[in-house]
Amino acid sequence: MKIGQISEMTGLSTHTIRYYEKQGLINAAAKDSSGHRDYGPDDIELLNWVDCLKNSGMSLALIRRYSDAVRSGDQPTQQEILSLHLQQLRLKQQDIHHYIEVTEKKLRRFSP
């Protein structure tokens, strides 16, 4: 698939896809006979996962390490990285829950 199709499928801009590729977060796409990037299903899956990790707060350096582990089949490293990330997400979730409670309490002050 061409980069424009991948962009439409994932909601990511072509610039972002190229950036992820340049940063080594996804594989460099194969080129077709015209020199256009040609992505496969595995590329799309990893691209979606990279975007999810980024949006959930994982650093690009750690995403690169995770992507390298995926490409090399290093499941213990993948599991370690995801387990640590999940712990961090759960802590953030607790923090957000607290912030919601505090904000709701403040808003109740405005109610008669």
Automatic annotation (TrEMBL):
Keyword DNA-binding attached: yes
- What is the protein's name according to its record? MerR family transcriptional regulator
Which lineage?
Bacteria, Pseudomonadati, Pseudomonadota, Gammaproteobacteria, Oceanospirillales
Q: Which Gene3D superfamilies match?
A: 1.10.1660.10
The UniProt GO MF terms for this protein read: DNA binding; DNA-binding transcription factor activity
Q: Keyword set for this entry?
A: DNA-binding
For the HTH merR-type domain, which residue ranges apply?
A: 1-69
Please give the superkingdom of this protein's source: Bacteria
Query: What organism is recorded for this protein?
Result: Bacterioplanes sanyensis
Q: PROSITE patterns this protein is in?
A: HTH_MERR_1 (PS00552), HTH_MERR_2 (PS50937)
The record ties this protein, via SUPFAM superfamilies, to: Putative DNA-binding domain (SSF46955)
Which is one Pfam family of this protein?
MerR_1
**CDD domains according to UniProt:** HTH_YyaN
